[in-house]
C-alpha cells in the first residue's frame, strides 16, 4: 500500500495541473488515469485527447483549406482548386495530440508525480483503489483526495447513437470522409465548432436548436452576428425546433422534429452529431458508495474551497458547478493545491472567459448586457467594429466587433464580448483589467501598438466614455 500527501483521480486539465502545482509546493503526489492506448497512458483527459485540442487542430486545418479555396485569389495568390485528404488531416490532428500527451507525461516525471494507470475508485476518505487493465487492484492512502473525473457527452434516449451515423463529438473529430449532409443537434459551442469544420471541407451542414438563440450564454447581439456570419459560410439554422427522434435507413438518418409553431418537420443527412452538452462523470469512481454528496443536477456538491462532505476529499472541474471549461478546471486545480499548502483561494469564477472557436471567433467574460439589465444595474456600453480597424482591413478580417460594458457611475468594467479576429487572445487584456477592478478608462488610456487588432479593444473602451476616435 502506497501513501501520498495527495491522490488525484483523473488526469484531465484540472487533475494534471493540480498535480504539478501540488508537487511544486512540496507534496508527494499521485495521479490516477484509466485512458490508455496500447502500452501508453493517455494523460490530458477529454480536452487533450478528444476535445479542445483535436477540434482546434481540425478547425485550423479546415480554415486553411477554406482560405485556399475562397480567399487566396484576392491576395494575388493563384492556386488550383484545393482538394482535401481526410486521412492526412486526421494524421496531423493525431500528431498534435500525441505530442502534447507526451509532454504531459514528461511534466509528471519532471515534477516527480507518480502516475497510477487504471480505474481509480474512492473507497473512503483518504483511501483509493486502482484497478489496472489486467484486473490487478492496488490500494493507496492519502491525506487528501481530489476528484477530477471530468465529463462525458449527454445522451438523448430518443437519439440513440450508433457511433457511425448518429455520433457524439468524440466520433465527429474522426470521420474518415467529409459527410454529404451533417445534421447538428444543438447550437452550442461544440456543435458550431464541429459544424464549421465539416462545412469548410465541403459538407452541407444544418444546425437544429431547441432555443431561439445559438449559444444562449452569449449577448444577443453577439449571437446574432455569429449566426449571420456562419449562415454566409453555408451553415443552415433551424431554431426553436425540437428534435423528437431519428430513423436510420440505408446509411441515411432522418430527424423528426416540431418547429416553433408545433408543425412536424424533418431533416435527412448521412451523419447526425448530437451535441446537446455534457454531464459530469460521477459514475465509476465509487462516489456514491463512498457517500459523496451530489447536487440536484448530479454534480459533486462542494463549498467555495472545493471541499466535499467527506473530510479530505475535494472535487474540481466539470464535476462541480460552473462552466465545463478546461481553463476553469486548471485554475481550480491550482487554487486547490495552494489551499492545501496553506494559501488562500483567490479564484474569481466570474472572470472565467468563454470562447467559441468558429470563424469569426467569439470570446466573452463577465456579465452580459441582458444579465446586468435584468439585475437593474445602471450600465454604459462601448462598441467598435473591426471594419474600422486598420490591421483587420489589411488582413481581410473585418467582421465583428468589440463590446465592453461598464458600470454607469464607477466605470468599472463588468463584462465584455468580442466577435472577430483573434477574439480569444484579445479578451485577455480585458480580463486582466477586470481582475484588478479596472475601468474602461484604464484600457482607453493604455497605448496600443498600431496597426494591431488590439486597437479595437481600446476604441471600444473609448466608446464607453463617448469618445471613440475612429468611429
DSSP E strands, number: 24
Beta-strand portion reads 25-35%
- The helix content, as a percent range, equals 25-40%
Q: What value does the average pLDDT take?
A: 97
Structural class estimated from helices and strands: alpha/beta
CATH superfamily of the largest domain: FAD/NAD(P)-binding domain
**Count of domains:** 3
Short characterization:
Helix content is 32%, strand content 26%. By secondary structure, it is an alpha/beta fold.
Descriptive notes:
With 471 residues, this protein is α/β, with parallel strands linked by helices. It has 3 domains: 2-153 and 279-349, FAD/NAD(P)-binding domain; 166-276, FAD/NAD(P)-binding domain (3-Layer(bba) Sandwich); 360-464, FAD/NAD-linked reductase, C-terminal dimerisation domain (Enolase-like, domain 1), CATH 3.30.390. The protein contains 14 helices and 24 strands. The protein has helices spanning 13-24, 45-50, 52-70, 86-110, 169-172, 189-200, 220-232, 287-290, 326-340, 369-374, 390-395, 423-435, 440-444, 455-464, and strands spanning 2-9, 29-33, 36-37, 40-41, 114-117, 119-124, 127-131, 137-147, 151-153, 166-167, 181-185, 204-208, 235-238, 242-249, 252-258, 264-269, 271-274, 278-280, 313-315, 354-356, 361-366, 379-385, 401-407, 413-420. The strands form 6 sheets. Strands 1, 2, 5, 6, 7, 8 and 19 form a 7-stranded mixed beta sheet that branches. A 5-stranded parallel beta sheet has the order 10-17-11-12-13. Strands 20-21-24-23-22 form a 5-stranded antiparallel beta sheet, sandwiched between helices. Strand 11, helix 6 (189-200) and strand 12 (204-208) form a beta-alpha-beta unit. The longest helix is centred in the first third of the chain and has 25 residues, at 86-110. The chain is globular and about 65 Å long. 45% of the residues are buried. The model has no long low-confidence stretch (mean pLDDT 97).
